[in-house]
Design a protein that fits this description.
Largest sheet of chain A: 6 strands, parallel
Number of strands of chain A: 10
Distance between the termini of chain B: 25 Å
Low-confidence stretches of chain B: none
Mean pLDDT of chain B: 80
CATH architecture of the largest domain in chain A: 2-Layer Sandwich
Number of strands of chain B: 0
Largest sheet of chain B: none
Radius of gyration of chain B: 19 Å
Order of helices and strands of chain A: EHHEEHHEHHHHEHEHEHEHEEHHHH
Order of helices and strands of chain B: HHHHHHHHH
Helix content of chain A: 40-55%
Number of helices of chain A: 16
Strand content of chain B: under 5%
Shape of chain B: flat
CATH topology of the largest domain in chain A: Beta Polymerase, domain 2
Strand order of the largest sheet of chain A: 7-6-5-8-9-10
Oligomer: heterodimer
Number of domains of chain B: 2
Number of domains of chain A: 3
Strand content of chain A: 5-15%
CATH superfamily of the largest domain in chain A: Glutamyl-tRNA reductase, N-terminal domain
Number of helices of chain B: 9
Radius of gyration of chain A: 31 Å
Helix content of chain B: over 70%
Chain lengths: ~425, ~270
């Protein structure tokens, strides 16, 4: 077992560093292939998301120069990224990867996206044959751990993303979202996501206004909504209860006087503005109007953070699960390492026994079947008695930290041929 | 005996009061359930107390300041329960429970003999007057509670503190709805109650003294009430302004009620 993981994430590196190390999806397969061709790397997987870039590998003797790989692959100066790099091996690498997959290392703890991203990275690496043996086991276990964390703790239960916080806020204002109208100003990815969430919670209709009308039409079609010409924005906006703005406009497009106009047309029914544009699309002054609520991206982010602290306790329970799972996984890997040694030890002794019987048979002359059986039983009995202790010692040692030492000693004592544990197919141990 | 039952009811309402105090800082599902059951129980004892008082005095009008407050407290609880049935929220209790507790406390700590009705009172109209006015007052109390909640909720949402999401107050629109409906419901009761009162006064005293504080303040309260209902209905006043106005109507009603202590013609306190 020589797991090694290096990488950067949103804690360790600013976005300028992360974006230089990011690998687009289209080039991921090729990058993984490069990684496993790097000297010393037996298996490898690359996880590249907007919050992290990580290389998870199984290396021969743990000596592979993974930093060198990053330097060569990205043609970067060491100073550009090495100060931001974390580097874990063995149990620490397993722990870190379990935490990542269980979304405990995410910017928004408990969000579900990361699991999908890890699964994609796994599929890519598997497809190019970069994951086949122990790393495969590690990944399978990581998915099981993520599932355990999700079902046994409340880490992923309440609203997490900006979009779902927006939904919750809308519910705090309107109660039910049934029959509420949503207006998208600007057709960004994020506003689309928010609109999808609102629609899933019962919002009735969706209007889309965009500077390029075609884009508005495309997006409106996705929601069965209505595309509106940008010039008609101020005349139609009062129809909406919830307005999501995400335009690239350099100055605010909704100002206090617009808010007053909308309110008088709406007979003061409240309006909720979700402003995810930077620079902001909605003048903060609007929030002072009675009946208009304005949340910008920072306000939403803050609400998300509040949720995160709320779930701190649950995260602690999740960490306990991770700790016990790391132990379990390590113990299982060690057992796997011991098994080939036991098998070759038994083979070795059996070969000796057979050879000795063949050697003395010529001198004994023809034997009756009974005598054959007696010799067989005698030699087998001696061998089994002698081998009993070494084998049970190996099995016990597998569950302790001295396993590698014991394996090494046994191999040397019996002069067993050096061999790496092979594919774990058909090995003992649970598969879940 | 009535006072004993009333004190038991007071004990039950105290649980509600505890809920109200705790709910201001954090929310607890368990406590809100306990408070609700205690409130049910309190209402039962309260009703027993009122029924006994009626039976003992032999008259349904229960003219003493303590009894009046006891009846009012009971009706406010009824209004609270109606809101709970319609909206499944105990949040108005944050305002209603302390109010009910206070009224019941005053009623349970002292008892005055029930005043004899002056001769010539038209009993039917008097009963109608009391029933209608008190229902109006109860509706106003709930509306006042909703207004306060609205202001709290609106402030948390505007200030963008996370409590806006974590707190379990009902949604703004729902609170607004509770406040508006109870206000609207209270208005006809209040109006008819005042008319019935006028008829009783006319029949008893032969004329109406418009300068008597009780009558003056009642008319004033009714005028404020009318303005409130009108602005909401026609000009679409909602939200913060409406909440302030509803609170204003409530204050006017409290002043009109307090006139019971110094009015010449509408006085329950024995001198």
């Amino acid at each position: 077992m020589s797991f090694r993981l290096i990488g950067v994430n949103h804690h360790s590196a600013p976005v300028e560093v992360r974006e230089r190390l990011a690998i687009p999806e289209s080039r991921l397969a090729e990058a993984v292939r490069h990684l496993v061709q790097h000297p010393g790397v037996d298996e490898g997987l690359i996880l590249s998301t907007c919050n992290r870039v990580e290389l998870l590998t199984r290396t021969r003797n743990g000596t592979a120069d993974l930093r060198g790989f990053l330097r060569d692959y990205f043609r970067l100066e060491p100073a550009a990224f090495e100060p931001h790099l974390y580097d874990y091996s063995e149990a620490d690498a397993i722990r870190h990867f379990f935490r990542v997959t269980s979304s405990l290392d995410s910017m928004v703890v408990g969000e579900a996206q990361i699991l999908g991203q890890v699964k994609e990275a796994y599929a890519t690496a598997r497809a190019v044959g970069a994951v086949h043996s122990q790393l495969d086991l590690l990944l399978t276990r990581a998915f099981a751990v993520a599932k355990r964390v999700r079902t046994e703790t409340a880490v992923g239960s309440s609203a997490v993303s900006v979009a779902s916080v927006a939904v919750e806020l809308a519910k705090k204002i309107f109660g039910s979202l049934q029959g509420k109208h949503v207006y998208l100003v600007g057709a960004g990815k994020m506003s689309e996501l928010a609109a999808r969430h609102l629609q899933a919670h019962g919002a009735a209709s969706i209007f889309v206004a965009n500077r390029t009308f075609e884009r508005a039409e495309q997006l409106a079609a996705k929601f069965n909504g209505e595309a509106i010409h940008f010039s008609e924005l101020y005349n139609t906006c009062d129809r909406a209860d919830i307005v999501i703005t995400s335009t690239g406009a350099p100055v605010a497009i909704f100002r206090r006087e617009h808010g007053e106009l909308f309110l008088s047309r709406r007979k003061n029914r409240p309006m909720f503005f979700i402003d995810i544009a930077v620079p902001r699309d909605v003048d903060p002054e609007m929030n002072k109007l009675d009946g208009i609520f304005v949340y910008d991206i920072d306000d939403l982010q803050q609400a998300v953070t509040a949720h995160v602290t709320d779930r701190k306790k649950e995260a602690e329970r999740a960490e306990e699960i991770i700790t016990s799972e790391v132990e379990r996984f390590r113990a299982r890997l060690l057992t796997l390492e011991v098994v080939p040694t036991i098998v070759s030890l038994q083979d070795h002794i059996e070969t000796i026994r057979q050879a000795e019987i063949d050697r003395v048979r010529g001198r004994l002359g023809p034997l009756s079947p009974d005598q054959e059986l007696a010799i067989e039983a005698l030699t087998r009995g001696i061998v089994n008695k002698i081998m009993h202790t070494p084998i049970s010692t190996l099995k016990t040692a597998a569950r302790t930290s001295e396993a590698t030492t014991v394996i090494d000693v046994v191999r040397r004592l019996f002069n067993l041929r050096e061999q790496k544990p092979g594919k774990p197919d058909g090995e003992p141990g649970e598969h879940d | 005996m009535p006072i004993l039952w009333l004190r038991v009811a007071l004990g039950c309402y105290a649980v509600g009061l505890l809920y109200a105090l705790v709910a201001l800082t954090r929310s607890s599902d368990l406590l809100s359930k306990v408070a609700l059951h205690a409130a049910y129980l309190g209402m039962v004892f309260h009703l027993v107390s009122l029924a006994e008082a009626v039976e003992l005095s032999g008259q349904i009008t229960l003219t003493s300041v303590h009894n009046a407050e006891s009846v009012l407290a009971f009706l406010i609880m009824v209004a609270f329960m109606l809101v709970y049935l319609a909206y499944k929220t105990t949040s108005p209790g944050i305002v209603v429970f302390p109010l009910v507790f206070l009224l019941t406390l005053v009623a349970a700590t002292g008892q005055q003999p029930i005043l004899e009705m002056p001769a010539g009172v038209r009993k039917g109209w008097l009963i109608a007057h009391i029933a209608l006015i008190f229902t109006g007052y109860a509706a106003l109390c709930v509306s006042f509670g909703a207004s306060l909640l609205y202001l709290i909720q609106e402030r948390t949402l505007k200030s963008k503190k996370s409590a806006g999401i974590l707190s379990r107050l009902p949604a703004l629109e729902v609170i607004d709805d509770i406040g508006y409906r109870s206000l609207l419901l209270g208005f006809p009761f209040m109006t008819l109650g005042l008319i019935a009162g006028t008829i009783v006064a006319q029949a008893t005293f032969g004329r109406i003294d418009f300068l008597d504080p009780k009558i003056l303040l009642s008319i004033l309260m009714w005028a404020v009430y009318l303005v409130m209902v009108y602005t909401r209905w026609s000009a679409g006043w909602r939200g913060r302004r409406a909440a302030y106005l509803a609170a204003g109507v409530f204050v006017a009603a409290v002043i009109a009620w307090s006139a019971n202590y110094f009015s010449a013609i509408h006085r329950f306190v024995q001198s």
